[in-house]
Amino acid sequence: MDSRMPRIMAVSSGKGGVGKTNFVANLALFYASLNKRVLILDADLGLSNIDVLFGLAPKYNLKHVLLGEKKLKETIVTGPQGVMILPASSGIRELTKLNDKHRLKLVSELDTFDMPFDIFLIDTGAGISDNVLFFCSAAQETIVVVTPEPTSIADAYALIKVLSRDFGEKQFRILVNTARSEKEAFDTFRKLAIVADKFLNISIDYLGYLPFDQNVKDAIIAQKGYIALYPNSSFSKHLGQVGRKLLELPQGKVKGNIQFFLKKALRVG
Ligand SMILES: Nc1ncnc2c1ncn2[C@@H]1O[C@H](COP(=O)(O)OP(=O)(O)OP(=O)(O)O)[C@@H](O)[C@H]1O
Ligand SMILES: [Mg+2]
User: Fold this and answer.
1) What is the pLDDT of residue 55?
2) Which domains, from first to last, does the chain contain?
3) Does the pTM of the predicted model rise above 0.85?
4) Which atom of ligand 1 is nearest to the CA of 48?
5) With 70 as the cut, is the pLDDT of residue 210 above it?
6) Residues in Cβ contact with 44 at an 8 Å cutoff, skipping those fewer than 6 apart
7) Is the CA virtual torsion 30, 262, 90, 164 positive or negative?
8) Is 178 in the pocket of ligand 1 (CB under 6 A)?
């Protein structure tokens, strides 16, 4: 894999609390087990962040980079199995109101950022805030996590609607989380697919599903990463299927390195 052209995938959802962060963390661990170099951008303003999930306490984040106090490289923390995390959460708010000085700083930082990665995962947080939309539209793949609850489906639809209407996004990968059966997962996807087709005139793709598993919560408490603790569970099997499927997708839409992506997502450069 060409390290200058990593796979860049944004994981998002309409409604909060549907399992994005848990998915991103475990997907990262899965790719690490395949010897891929994984970088996670934690762009989530919520509380259950990647660093918490991995039991890390990053000292610095993008804010320190913007203030010129740290290099981008210096903010990266290493989690289990060498998974790297770029903590941005408390810096992201500032990124929406960058002044010229900040922009120049960020551009020069990005130009000298030379760490190689194969996979770049962005945990965008939920909803239709600018951050979520920018990250999704700049990534190669937009993964929308949805659960079988009607409100989750409705909010996923709202997110897809804005991304397709205002950002020209035409391709969405739908991951159904906490499904009780394969049928429930596919029915959830179908409900979304029908309205997307009818009202937005776009087709969405079924990426797969992750079953509901009570142990997921325990693994979070243990801060170990679920798939490491329960490698033979149904959840881990499905996660592996989804992870492999994502790797098989053509790297169609946007090609570029991490600098290209971040500049696009942050509207700088
Ligand atoms: N497949 C699953 N089975 C059981 N519980 C799950 C599953 N996936 C996630 N959870 C639980 O659901 C809760 C929310 O998960 P998570 O924090 O990953 O969601 P999120 O979408 O990132 O939330 P937020 O929008 O607040 O960032 C957590 O308590 C997590 O343990
Ligand atoms: Mg989260």
Assistant:
1) 80
2) 7-266 (3.40.50.300)
3) yes
4) 17
5) yes
6) 20, 21, 50, 89, 123, 124, 125
7) negative
8) yes
